[in-house]
Write a structure and sequence with these properties.
The complex is a heterodimer of chains A (114) and B (119). Chain A is globular and about 45 Å long. Chain A is mainly beta and 114 residues long. Chain B is an all-beta fold. Chains A and B meet through strand 4, strand 9 and strand 10 of A and strand 5 and strand 10 of B.
């Protein structure tokens, strides 16, 4: 079973603060890393799909980096807003027997206080 | 973007009964759908991979006779929890995978999930 770890488990920040959290994964058979944003009572929403070592993706105030050699990805949020409050999930896809299987981390729960 | 629906969103059933959960891709065809289960404060755990027109592939430790998966069309996969027990109470969520262009040729879209409570 692939071990995908996310840290911290939860995070409380003040509006305007910048923050970041980590997803770590085994680097062997790596295919892709997904970041999702999951608000309560909604479907997880895809943020980034990252495949290449050194990838950097950006979407508004949110950005992510990927290091496949050492097995980690960082998600950054600049100037956090209350609407950024959600659980942020990462999923590592690995090649397995001709198919690709995702394994999710437990998520980082972010709460942004106004 | 692609939309995946799940029905029902919440179900309460008595121990021993069976419950069917539907997962539909609304505006695209999905040859592959995934079923996940999430217990409180745990990660999404992949239960099975459902491929249209063929038998589902179950992850280790998931009983195929208890969690029946049917993917009869390109837009519908169903998960039936048979003879449900209180320990089956959980959050079940499906996702659909579609092919895109580029090196990484798959994207994944989630349904909103189904909360199952077995009394």
């Amino acid at each position: 079973i692939l071990n995908v770890e996310q840290s911290p488990q939860s995070l409380h920040v003040q509006e305007g603060d910048s923050t970041n959290f980590t997803c770590s994964f085994p680097s062997s058979n790596f295919y892709a890393l997904h970041w999702y944003r999951w608000e309560t009572a909604k479907s997880p929403e895809a943020l980034f799909v990252m495949t290449l070592n050194g990838d950097e993706k950006k979407k508004g105030r949110i950005s992510a980096t990927l290091n496949t050699k050492e097995g980690y990805s960082y998600l950054y949020i600049k100037g956090s807003q209350p609407e950024d409050s959600a659980t942020y999930l990462c999923a590592c896809w690995v090649a397995s027997g001709g198919s690709y299987i995702p394994t999710f981390g437990r998520g980082t729960s972010l709460i942004v206080h106004p | 973007g692609a939309v995946v629906s799940q029905h029902p969103s919440w179900v309460i059933c008595k121990s021993g009964t069976s419950v069917k959960i539907e997962c539909r891709s609304l505006d695209f065809q999905a040859t592959t759908m995934f079923w996940y289960r999430q217990f409180p404060k745990q990660s999404l755990m992949l239960m099975a991979t459902s491929n249209e027109g063929s038998k589902a592939t179950y992850e280790q430790g998931v009983e195929k006779d208890k969690f029946l998966i049917n993917h009869a069309s390109l837009t519908l996969s169903t998960l039936t929890v048979t003879s449900a027990h209180p320990e089956d109470s959980s959050f079940y969520i499906c996702s659909a995978r579609i092919r895109t262009s580029g090196r990484y040729s798959y994207e994944q879209y989630f349904g909103p999930g189904t909360r199952l409570t077995v009394t």
